[in-house]
Model the fold of this input.
Amino acid sequence: MTREIADSLIPILIAPNPILKARARRVSAADADSVRDLVPRMFASMYNAPGIGLAAPQVGIGLRLAVIDLQADDKRDPVVLINPEIVARSPELATREEGCLSIPGQYADITRPARVRVRFEDAGGVRAEIEAEGLLAACLQHEIDHLDGVLFIDHLSALKRNMLMRKLAKEQRLKAEKAL
Done:
C-alpha cells in the first residue's frame, strides 16, 4: 500500500459505536466539497478492508452517502449513492449471508426483498435509478439501512443478535490484547 493511499484511509467504526445507530441527514449542496473529498477516501477504506459497500456513518460521517463496488469478475465498477432511497421492493424475498465492515468477522443469513429499485444522485449530482437483484439488491438495502441507523444484525432475533455481538466483543478484546 502506498503512503498516499494509507494517508487517505478513514477508520471504520465498529459496533456498538452509537454513531452507527443514528439516522444520517440528507446531503445538501453545502456538503459538495466535503463529499467530493470523502468519496475517494471511502472507496480506499472499503477496498482496503476489503468490502463491497461502505456507508458514510461507518466512517463517522452522518451524511446519506454510500459507496458500492461488487467487483464482479475482479473488475472495479464503483458506484456512488448520494441520498439513496428505495422506491420499489419486490414482494418476493431472498435470503443471503451478510457481513459488515462494522461488525467484522460476523455473518448471518438475512432475508430481504429479492429486487429493489433505488433512486439516488451520483457523484456528479445527476439523479439516477438502479434496478437490482441478487447481491447488488442485498448490498443496496444493507447500505441504505446504515443510513437509517440499522445494522444487518437488527434483522435477526434478539438471541442471535446478542450472540453475534458477544462474539464480536470477545474478538475485539483479544485483538486489543494482542496489540499491547
